Amino acid sequence: MIRTRHLTKRYGDTSAVEDLSLDVRPGRVTGFLGPNGAGKSTTMRLILGLDTPTAGSAEVNGQSYRNLPVPLREVGALLDGRAAHPGRSAYHHLLYLAQANGLPRRRVDDVLDEVGLTAVARRRTKTYSLGMGQRLGIAAALLGEPSVLILDEPINGLDTDGIRWLRTLLRQLAADGRTVLLSSHLMSEMELTADHLVVIGGGRLLADTDMQSFLTAHAHGYTMVRAAEGERLRDVLCGAGGTVRPDRRGAWRVDGLDAATIGELACAQRIVLHELTPHRDSLEDAYARLTDQASTFRARAAAA
Ligand SMILES: Nc1ncnc2c1ncn2[C@@H]1O[C@H](COP(=O)(O)OP(=O)(O)OP(=O)(O)O)[C@@H](O)[C@H]1O
């Protein structure tokens, strides 16, 4: 469990994190979203005791990070995939971490195996690709079998297999009852991985809600429809109050009328439908709508 209360960090005139109060709970993957510069990395660094808050507090399992007796056993973190010494092998990097934290040597082999780096474990990390570096960072985070994981952009550089592997791993870690806080700009992946979302903008909390509620609140529904008599159908739907726009494939995108109503209107006018598909905006669309609203609000507030 991660808890922040009124967490605030200012760098001179820049407010990186402002009055942020969060409970990041175990048993689920919490996606941490926000535009560039929103304050995600700063929040993670404050939780990990790598920076000191200007005000407020951050705790992991009821204690500030700096008071945890063996931090790696409580919190595993990936903040920078290039954190390992370039001249050291992955094996020795992990062995050093294990010994410094009183962890058994076998954990090094276990995590290397888990992240798929066993075959290249003796190579110097400077020869690693970005994706291999990310896998090593994830191995280091898992080393102490912590109950809390904090991962800043872990998907960067992973190939398709790597992305699927990480998604499965994170969902499994959450199912085991761990707390997983994950930041990413890849919305499609976040939609598949996270159960819960925390969205920040300008250092402030914009949303803290489960994925389904977030989508219900911010994702719009619409219907794609195609008919033999496309123009006539468009006129009927517009007449019934729908907003109808053509899409690239020659279908109509209809907002304001649901699929059942469209089907009934077409039937009443004896128009044959070739397609009638309800859609919902993606997380990316919903997130864009929320952050647009927030920046418009901020711009208006600044102008007032
Ligand atoms: N050490 C620092 N000194 C001065 N300003 C900083 C420092 N670290 C962060 N900032 C500023 O704080 C704000 C928040 O930055 P942060 O890196 O936390 O955002 P982020 O949400 O992680 O962004 P991104 O998605 O680009 O990684 C930015 O305006 C950034 O320039």
UniProtKB/TrEMBL annotation:
Transmembrane segments: none annotated. Keywords: ATP-binding, Nucleotide-binding, Transport. It comes from the Bacteria. The keyword Protein biosynthesis does not apply. Pfam families: ABC_tran. Signal peptide: none annotated. Residues 2-227 form the ABC transporter domain. CDD domains: ABC_BcrA_bacitracin_resist. InterPro entries: AAA+_ATPase (IPR003593), ABC_transporter-like_ATP-bd (IPR003439), P-loop_NTPase (IPR027417). GO terms for molecular function: ATP binding; ATP hydrolysis activity. PANTHER family: ABC TRANSPORTER, ATP-BINDING PROTEIN. Belongs to the ABC transporter superfamily. This is ABC-2 type transport system ATP-binding protein. It comes from Cryptosporangium aurantiacum.
